[in-house]
Amino acid sequence: MENVEKKKKTGMYDNVLKQFNHAADIMKLDKGIRKILGSTNSEISVHFPVKMDDGRIEVFNGYRVQHNNALGPYKGGLRFHPTVDITAARALAIWMTWKSALAGLPYGGGKGGVSIDPSKYSEAELERITRRFTYSLGENIGPDVDIPAPDVNTNPQIMAWIADTFASTKSPSTRMLNLHVVTGKPVGSGGLKGRDRATGYGVVASIKSWAKLKGIDLSGKRFIVQGFGNVGYWASYFMEELGAKLIAVQDASGTIFNENGLDTEKLHNHVGNNKGMIAGYPESVKIENSEFFALDCDVIIPAALGNQITEANAHLIKAKLIAEGANGPTDVEGEKILLERGVDIIPDILCNAGGVTGSYYEWLQNKRSEDYHIDTVLRMISEKLEQAFERTVNSANKYDTDWRTGAYIAALERIEQTYRERGVFP
Predict the structure, then answer these.
(1) Was 199 annotated as part of a binding site?
(2) What is the CATH number of the domain that holds 248?
(3) How many domains does the chain contain in total?
(4) N or C: which end of the chain has fewer CB within 10 A?
(5) CA angle, 375 as apex, 160 and 346 as ends, to 5°?
């Protein structure tokens, strides 16, 4: 199992580099800038002790990779997951650079986390792990340096602990100026109204842009979702609002199916009472995991982990659209098969950029001491993602390429322009 996970993470990083090099070749990216963007700026590895509830001491491994900050502070999630390591964080940090650049945000890319299974620890232990990890990162993060956010298995509460810990290491006179070291905080601690649904909302905003471009009415369309955490749930919620029908969901506990449609809110409540798992949901039948991507549907929303759609299953897909709610759910070989079969793919750096866009508005809200209304937040996210979708399509058309490559080129052109204008020190 360890070798399988290692292969997946290495494969994800290889995918990032292949996608980057492919786009750089097509656009003829400046050779010097290509060298800069082909490597990370900083890779931080920390090992820190934490006292457990029973008095034992455990040592944890934490990571933060900072890819590039030409456009602004590093920005990206922190995840608590057994698969977290430098290789995985490196791939995800690079994706964050492209994502922020494509969305027109003043950020670079960062990513990291702690290599743990949070389900094995009490809330008090998780708080101590979080606070000690934050302290270990020290000045490597900060509201104008590197701004983490929630990711897999992290949430507003964890962000609040990070903010409090970081601010507590500063002088009393500047403490309140450092609370926006993270985004995705609880609303009462400076968080943004609507940040909880921003990524899922952004996925559906991108799907709406696709439907408008193709002249498709989403009402009555059938969709399936892999992963029913924050992104999967909110994407399903907003798709259901448009009249689309959720017919299947897959997570670590299995795959459930209902030809007549799954009720998003009922399933969400079931998951909340079932340790976060969909297994056992009464208004469904269980099907084999291998059948999931082969289901007859119009839209697939992979919103779990990377490398889920590969050459082993891409030929089974019947959907017209893959909307990548997760980071890197489609590998290079799988994508090649899908494109040959005429399946549209809204790439992750566009499709799931609602999260970092929402984070940007939270950061801005904190810096300006403002309080945005949720309707304003969702409208601003929609506008940013509509513009990013347009940039992607225009770039793909200009270079006669696919949307992922078009998105990469649009992002790279923005960063290239910055380097050309500023130069490289010294």
Answers:
(1) yes
(2) 3.40.50.720
(3) 2
(4) C
(5) 85
Does this model's pTM top 0.90? My answer is yes
Helix (H) or strand (E) holding 226: strand 222-226
Residue 237's contacts (CB-CB under 8 Å, 6 or more residues apart) are 197, 200, 264, 265, 268
Let me know whether 166 and 205 are in one domain. no
Q: Is 9 annotated as a binding residue?
A: no
Q: Indicate which residue of 8, 9, 111, 185 is catalytic.
A: 111
Q: Which residues of 351-387 are buried (b: 16+ CB within 10 A; e: fewer)?
A: bbbbbbbbbbbbbbbbeeeeebeeeebbebbbebbee
Of 177, 209, 240, the domain-final residue: 177
Beta bridge partners of 345: 322
Q: Considering the domain boundaries, does residue 397 fall inside one?
A: no
The whole domain housing 48 covers 36-177
274 annotated ligand-binding residue: no
d(CA 193, CA 186): 9
Do 150 and 205 share a domain, yes or no?
no
Q: Does the pLDDT at position 3 exceed 80?
A: no
Known catalytic membership, residue 111? yes
Q: Is residue 183 a contact partner of residue 147, using CB atoms and an 8 Å limit?
A: yes
Backbone phi and psi for residue 147, each to the nearest 5 degrees, phi listed first: -120, 95
Q: Where is pLDDT greater, at 172 or 134?
A: 134
pLDDT tier at 9, thresholds 50, 70, 90: low
Quick check: 46 and 132 in contact, CB under 8 A? no
The verdict on whether residue 99 carries a ligand-binding annotation is: yes
What's the pLDDT band for 329 if we cut at 50, 70, 90? very high
Q: Is 306 helix (H, G, I), strand (E, B) or coil?
A: coil
100 assigned ligand-binding residue: no
Here the CATH number for the domain that contains residue 107 is 3.40.50.10860
Packing angle between helix 156-168 and helix 123-137, nearest 10 degrees?
A: 50
pLDDT at position 12, please? 79
Give the orientation angle of helix 374-399 with respect to helix 198-214, to 10 degrees.
50
The predicted-structure confidence for 276-318, as pLDDT tens digits, reads as follows: 999 999 999 999 999 999 999 999 999 998 889 999 999 999 9
